[in-house]
Amino acid sequence: MVIPFLLSEMLYLCIHKYEVYTKRGRKSPLFLSKIDMISKERITALIDERIQELNKNLYVVDMTISSSNVIRVELDRVDGYVAVEDCMSVSRNIEHNLDRDAADFELHVSSAGLDKPFRHENQYVKNIGKRVKVKLNDASKIEGELISFDPEEIQLKDRVKKKVEGRKKKEWVEEVYNIKMKEIKETKIIISFK
Question: Could you give the count of Cα atoms lying within 13 Å of 95 in the half-sphere of its Cβ?
Answer without folding.
Answer: 10
